[in-house]
Structure formats: C-alpha cells, structure tokens
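User: Modeling request: complex.
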Amino acid sequence: MKFTSVFDIIGPVMIGPSSSHTAGAARIGRVARDLFGRQPKWAKIHLYGSFAETYKGHGTDVAIIGGLLDYDTYDERIKTAFKEAAEAGLTFEFIPETDHTEHPNTARIVIGDDDMEMSMVGISIGGGAIEITELNGFPLRLSGGMPAILVVHDDRAGCIANVANCLAKHNINIGHMEVSRKERGNMALMVIEVDQNIEHSILGEIENLPNITKVTRIKN
Amino acid sequence: MEVLFRNVRELIERAETENKLISEIMIEQEILMSERSRDEIMEQMSRNLTVMEEAVERGLKGVRSVTGLTGGDAVLLQKYIQSGKGLSGNLLLDAVSKAVATNEVNAAMGTICATPTAGSAGVVPGTLFAVKNKLNPTREQMIRYLFTAGAFGFVVANNASISGAAGGCQAEVGSAAAMAAASIVEMAGGTPSQSSHAFAISLKNMLGLVCDPVAGLVEVPCVKRNAMGAANAMVAADMALAGITSRIPTDEVIGAMFRIGQTMPVALKETAQGGLAATPTAKAIQAKIFGGAVLHRD
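Assistant: Request completed. Predicted assembly structure:
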C-alpha cells in the first residue's frame, strides 16, 4: 500500500497551489536536505515530466528551494524562498528535462558544498505524498513519512547483522529494511525505516562499526 | 501490515456488521496503522478542520491570485444567494461558493488542507460548511465528516490514483466529489451502504475528466471544477439518500476510473499541453504571464 494514513488523504496542511507540485516538491527538497545533513551551498535541480512542464505555475521551484531551506509544507516563507535562499547563501539552478521517466512528477536534486556532493531522485505520487527512488546512484524506495537511517557500507558479510544488532541493543524496532548495491563486492546501501527518531550518538556508533562508510538519517 | 479494509466493499461490510459509522472504521484503522492514540488522531484532524474553516472564511472575504486569473467569485456567489434570486437552491449554491472560496485561497498561495489534493481542496470543506447550516452537527461530527471522506479517498489512492498527473482531474476533483458525497450521507444519517452508493454515483459522473490547467496553473479551470464537484457531491448524496443505488459496484467504478486514467493521453494529465490549456486564449494567457521568463513571486 502506497498510502497508509488518512492524513495522506485529508492533508497535508500546506501553502497552495498544488499538493503534488508544491507540497510534495517541498517535501522532496526537505528530505534531500535531511539526507545531506546540513544546508547545501549550491543546488542543481533537474525536473521531469509534469514537473518540467508546469513547475513555474505551480511554485514547484520555490517549494523545492523552501524544502532545501528546511521549510515544512505549510511554511509561509515558501512563497519568498528564492529571496531567503539568496540570504542563506544557497545558489541554485533549475533544469527542465525532456527525458521520459517512469513517474510523471520526478525531480533529481544534486546538492553540495565545499566538502560533499549528493544526488537524489524523488517522485511526488499525489496528495503531497512522496517517494525517494535513488540516492547517489543506489536505487531505493523510501517514503520520507517515517524516520529512517541510510547506511552506506562495503558489500561484505556481517555488515547488516552488525547494524541490526546495534539497533536492537538500543531497543529500536526496524519497521522496514532494504539493501541495494551497484555491483557485487563494492558499495552497498541499507535503508532502514524505524519507529522513532534515532539520536546522533547512535548514528556515530553505527558509523564506527567495521566496513561502514557513512550513516545519515531522516527525521519525522 | 494489518488493515481493516482494502476496498469499499470491505469497508461497508465491516461498518454494517459491527454497526459502526464509516468514520469510526477509518479512525480505528488509523490507530492500528499509526500506533497513535485516538486523542492524537482526533486532535490532528481537528487542526485540519480549523485550517479548512479559516480558508473558507478568507476566501469569502475575497482573494485574488498572483496572476489575477482567479479570485472574487466566491464573493459574487454569496451576494447572489443573498439577493434571493438563486434557482438551484441556496444550500447547494452555498456549498459551491465555499468550495470556490477554498480554491481561490489555494490559487493565491494561501494555506489550505489538501483533500485529497490542493487542486481539489474545495469540494470536501465547501460541502461540509454548507450542510453544517442545515444539519447542525457537533464539532466531533464535523471531524468525522473528514474521516469518512478520508476512508473512501484512502481506497481510491491505493487502488487507483488521486493525482492529476497520473489519472487526470477525475482522480482529483472526481475523487473529492465522491468522497464528499459519501460524507454528506453519513452526516445526514444515511447508512454506510448509502454512502457507498453516493460515492459511486458521484464518481461515475466525473469519469474521463481531464486535467488541463491553463498555463499549468491550479486556477483555470480548477476553481470552477471544484464548484461543480461540490454541486455533484450534493446531488449524488441526495440521490443516494432518496434510495437510488448504483448499478455498478463502487469498487468497479474506482477500477474504471483507474483504467481511464492509464489510457488518458499525457497531454491531458497535468502537462498543460492539451484540452483547455491548448486553446488560443490559454496560450495567450500563458505568454502574457510567463513571456518565456521565470515568474517571480516575491
């Protein structure tokens, strides 16, 4: 089931005019910022399908920038997000693409600062609900509606068990888990949806486990 | 994942066997799936109701969108109602004006609650705040109106679509009208089965509706489609309450809506390339608003 809550249908409370093109776009931007871990300095946003055709009219552009500035769907500052971005030192560029994508409302957000760069693909599936379908080339499926951690690790035996053990030790229940890799024996990504927000200290603990490269989280 | 209903048939069967309102089944399922308390869930829906109330009030005072394409029609309708010249009934026109009010606020980038989407956000609150004056519901009954609408929307979202880009306007205003029809029936004291028939009757008359926003904006024809969605919901609810049933079962109507959406050309699914968006006047509007340059909103 793609929609699990009545508040996916009656909600979100949001700044108009479009739940998929404004609220969903803001959420995609905000998840990107969350995964990046801090405010990026630059952003290149590729828009596909209906997003590419209608983004100006729907405020998709201001909404994504608002999301990158950590605004929620109902934050009035979405309307002036371009100005706020300039003040916050975030430069950005929107690139409408003509390639066909599986979902009509798709955005690829490439963000970075002096130290790091990240690429994420999000889709807006209706009524403000979203899914993240790719992170740094790894395919994944993440709703953004649940707290989650993303663990980049070496594709070696024992990695998954170690992370699961660490979460178990802190009494954190795993709701949903997926592992993907680009090729065997190389880099892999664990996506773990959990029932509560995970503290930074636990993220650090996981990051110190063998063969773990990086841990990020999505708050709820 | 344990769910109490996956389609309308299961929803109605459960409500009737357990002798509960549809809204109650939706609340119970939300408790089950979110693992949150009833109080928390009722409180969140109450906040959504307040947002809807404020949007209607703001729209009835008169708003105008950034482009100037929409705004002010809710006020015109209220004045017309007060003139006493209305032909289609003041309750119906009140629902229409409040649906318009909400969508005018949405087009003006105001704060609204998506039901099920922003472009279709007028229908459910529009009908609610109109029938409220006749049925005098408690605050809790008004909150339940939203859960009943949500229950049907939940089925549509999971079994078909509530996205104009995926299924056309039938998936947005069509779903909203059908959801509202079901809720009106429950508030008026109809049975769960009558809610289901109202939903089916309403949606059947929205099938095939395309999403063709002029210049890609959620303004023309969206605001007026919400108006007609509200009118459709009111009439469908009255038909079901009169005892009229849908010959095609509700879940099959939802299935038909899904397949129509899948076969609908992309030009008619929120890409602003076909339908009304492709008319000479729409193209002129688009050129005037954007002129090839980025729209600045600040």
